[in-house]
Amino acid sequence: MRFSIKIIKIKKNIDQSIIGPPLKEILISLVQAHDQNKIDKLILHFKDLYDSKYCYKTELYKGVKETLQILYKEKKLFLITNKRLNPTKIMLENRNIIKLFKNYFSVDLNDTKKKDKTSLIRNTIKDLNLNPTDTVYIGDTYSDFLASKDNNIKFLYVGWGYGEYVDSAYLHLNKISELT
Fold this sequence. Notes:
Layout: H1 23-30, H2 39-52, H3 64-74, E1 78-81, H4 85-94, E2 103-106, H5 117-127, E3 136-139, H6 142-150, E4 154-158, E5 171-173
Parallel strand pairs: 1-2, 3-4, 4-5
Helix pairs in contact: 5-6
């Protein structure tokens, strides 16, 4: 697909701190007010490019696959992400780790049960009849922590992600191998 968008000026520098939230949230935080009307078009072009090319280039952190293989034998693993479902599936399949998860779920702003991570976690626990005291959420952002806290489940903070340090986490991990 070919497209052109006039130059859009952004409000701040782009760095790793923007990674994590849903795409529309990221763009709203970056695009200046007079260009906000272009966000939906930007999203369509981004999705097209990302789904056809860039999600295939996603690399796993060192040790992730091996750790997931160990955990898979002992635990029920579910993935909850802000990333859309289609590229999530592509990445899981492309890295040959999809079979290690019982299921995977994505935030969906058009579905009240999945409108944010808090709702998605709550409804996943309910729909799958999971015991919250036996459930942990692993993440790297303060919003991940809040979603866990709002659902009365333990939050494990991982220091190798993109998010900010969460002091109140149940446990802090510096390496993926610490999960096993």
